[in-house]
Amino acid sequence: MPIEDLDVVDRRIIAALQENGRLSNVDLADKVGLSPSPCLRRVNRLEREGYIESYRAILGRRSIGLGLSVFIGVKIDGHADDRATTFEKEVVAFPEVVACHMIAGEADYLIEVAVPDLDHYQRFLVDRLLELPLVREVRSNIAIQTLKAGAPLPLGHLIPAADSKRRARNR
Predict the structure, then answer these.
(1) What is the pLDDT of residues 50-76, one digit of tens each?
(2) Which of 58, 94, 108, 143 could form a disulfide with 69 if both were Cys (CB 3.0 to 4.6 A apart)?
(3) Start-end of CATH 1.10.10.10 domains in the chain
(4) Which of 131, 128, 101, 132 is nearest to 115 (CA)?
(5) CATH number of the domain at 3-56, out of 3.40.640.10, 1.10.10.10, 3.40.50.300, 3.40.718.10?
(6) Residues 75-114, buried b or exposed e (16+ Cβ, 10 A)?
(7) Which residues contact 30 (CB under 8 A, 6 or more apart)?
(8) Is the pTM of this model over 0.85?
(9) What is the CB neighbour count within 10 angstroms for residue 67?
(10) Is 3.30.70.920 the CATH number for 68-142?
């Protein structure tokens, strides 16, 4: 699904929903210059085709008792076999893992974990992560302060310049 398949209205829809996923269909239609029925059909198509993956609330981690974020660089033994796939499946299944990326660099994976405190992190690390057979090395980086997280994706390359300037003026 190349982005070229999205017309200007589709691009406005995904930008508006990323900014506020709780927009009613009527408000969304008004915002992008459509009537409600065609707008809903477009949203449904964008969902079906995978441009819109899901909708969710972004929670305050500290407010719900998950105030410690740890970024873990993990090196594993072996990459191109079924054991690496098993490792990935096991890691992403841990509820504490909120993001996992295969990366190039010093580590093979960068994992983000959200836990209440250091004691919980230690139990996660020792009892779960280090118990996985392929784990060779782990380096933990504790977030002291989060300056930006869960930000909307930058869609400037999708939205015509005139739309971007108009949206900036309307803020």
Answers:
(1) 999 999 998 999 999 999 999 999 999
(2) 143
(3) 3-56
(4) 128
(5) 1.10.10.10
(6) ebeeeeeeebeebeebbeeeebbbebeeeeeebbbbbbbb
(7) none
(8) no
(9) 15
(10) yes
